[in-house]
Automatic annotation (TrEMBL):
It holds the Pfam family Trns_repr_metal. It comes from Desulfosporosinus orientis (strain ATCC 19365 / DSM 765 / NCIMB 8382 / VKM B-1628 / Singapore I) (Desulfotomaculum orientis). Residues 1-26 are annotated as: Disordered. It comes from the Bacteria. GO terms for molecular function: DNA binding; metal ion binding. InterPro entries: Metal_Tscrpt_repr, Metal_Tscrpt_repr_sf. This is Copper-sensing transcriptional repressor CsoR. One of its GO terms (biological process) is negative regulation of DNA-templated transcription.
Length: 113
């Protein structure tokens, strides 16, 4: 099956022998906007932390900001995992590809380390 045949499906789901560079997501514009907005906010937090370090701000204050940034990244991860499970993973399971279960488990285990 060609990716041109079904533009609403995950291109990876259509290619059994694809490699990582061939994989793309197919999230709706609302999801992309939400993810980009969150990442822009996190990027600002990271720049702020760097500035705090350069200004010799009290260590505990910097550590609290790092914790906030980490929590924000975790939020992005959870949202992306949810969307991945409801789209790509669901489609692959429906197509009979149970290898996706191992992939998702590895991802989740990495996330909870």
């Amino acid at each position: 099956m060609n990716t041109e045949d079904n533009k609403d499906s995950c291109p990876f789901c259509q290619h059994e022998e694809s490699n990582l560079s061939d994989r793309t997501s197919h999230h709706d514009d609302k999801t992309i906007k939400a993810l980009v907005t969150r990442m822009n906010r996190i990027e600002g937090q990271i720049r702020g932390i760097k500035g705090m370090i350069e200004r010799h701000v009290y260590c505990d204050d910097i550590l609290n900001q790092i914790s906030s940034a980490r929590s924000a990244l975790d939020g992005v991860s959870r949202l992306l995992l949810e969307k991945h499970m409801k789209s790509c993973v669901k489609e692959q399971l429906e197509a009979g590809d149970e290898q996706i279960i191992d992939e998702v488990l590895q991802t989740i285990f990495r996330m909870i380390r």
